[in-house]
């Protein structure tokens, strides 16, 4: 039964029966599975089984929880519900939890701090906001965020004592503290939400053509063609755009990322 499943770690430790009953009951109430204690695992839904597995871990009263993709086998709706439940449990229990996932949206929504590992190498550690706003390298920039960050090859050049970055379609002045990177090849990154449409005249605006429009409820995911490059943009859904439209765009100030060098 579910009761026996949760109680098993305590029975192995030879915890007194009365204490086992009390601890199982408390955990079941916390996880809202009290009415399931007499059922067999085969009679449970995926979400209920997930909570039973959590209960079996929690009843031991550990100092640390290690969860290895605990929601990977659930459907999307139940997965979102369980994310919220896990956050509530963490607030109630206050137990350090190490949560392993390949889903960057899941990591961003659940965690207080994220450690991003690629091919066995730690890339960055920080809060969700820190890794989103200030990715340590191109891998982190491309992995965190949906749709993914735009990235183009470029070069930092110095002319008349002034620095600027140049790509095939874009150039922008840079601060002097990046002088150590002069004449080096870099990757320029811009998040799609930091691409905006220019209304009226603006001297540094970039000419673009609408190639693909994907309605996503409150937003539109728009793919633009700019000379020989592609630019992804996120814009409000009340913006009236059509395939083939020609428009002008710019990148928000302070939102450029330079990889293989320092970030702006």
UniProtKB/TrEMBL annotation:
- The ABC transporter domain, residue ranges: 2-144
- Keyword field contains Cell membrane: yes
Q: Which GO terms describe its molecular function?
A: ATP binding; ATP hydrolysis activity
Q: Which Gene3D superfamilies match?
A: 2.40.50.100, Nucleic acid-binding proteins, P-loop containing nucleotide triphosphate hydrolases
Keywords from the UniProt entry: Cell membrane, Membrane, Translocase
GO CC terms of this entry: ATP-binding cassette (ABC) transporter complex, substrate-binding subunit-containing
Acyltransferase listed as a keyword: no
- What PANTHER family does the entry give? MALTODEXTRIN IMPORT ATP-BINDING PROTEIN MSMX (PTHR43875), TREHALOSE IMPORT ATP-BINDING PROTEIN SUGC (PTHR43875:SF15)
This protein's name:
ABC transporter domain-containing protein
Q: Which organism is it from?
A: marine sediment metagenome
Highest lineage ranks of the organism? unclassified sequences, metagenomes, ecological metagenomes
């Amino acid at each position: 039964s579910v009761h026996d499943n949760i109680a098993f770690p305590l029975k192995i430790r030879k915890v007194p029966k009365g204490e086992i009953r009390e601890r199982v009951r408390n955990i079941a109430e916390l996880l809202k599975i009290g009415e399931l204690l007499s059922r067999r695992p085969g009679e449970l839904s995926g979400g209920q089984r997930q909570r039973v597995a959590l209960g079996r871990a929690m009843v031991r009263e550990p100092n640390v929880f290690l969860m290895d993709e605990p929601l990977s086998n659930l459907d999307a709706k139940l997965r979102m519900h369980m994310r919220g439940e896990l956050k509530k449990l963490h607030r109630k229990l206050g137990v350090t939890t190490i949560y392993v996932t390949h889903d960057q949206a899941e990591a961003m929504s659940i965690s207080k701090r994220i450690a991003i590992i690629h091919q066995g190498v730690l890339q960055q550690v920080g809060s969700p906001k820190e890794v989103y706003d200030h990715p340590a390298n191109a891998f982190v920039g491309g992995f965190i965020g949906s749709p993914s960050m735009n990235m183009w090859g470029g070069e930092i050049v110095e002319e008349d004592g002034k620095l600027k970055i140049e790509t095939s379609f874009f150039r922008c002045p840079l601060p002097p503290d990046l002088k150590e990177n002069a004449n080096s090849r870099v990757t320029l990154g811009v998040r799609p939400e930091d691409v905006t449409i220019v209304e009226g005249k603006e001297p540094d605006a970039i000419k673009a053509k609408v190639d693909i429009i994907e309605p996503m409820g409150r937003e539109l995911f728009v793919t633009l063609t700019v000379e020989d490059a592609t630019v992804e943009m996120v814009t409000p859904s009340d913006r009236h755009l059509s395939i083939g439209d020609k428009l002008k765009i710019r990148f928000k100030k302070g939102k450029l990322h330079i990889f293989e060098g320092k970030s702006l």
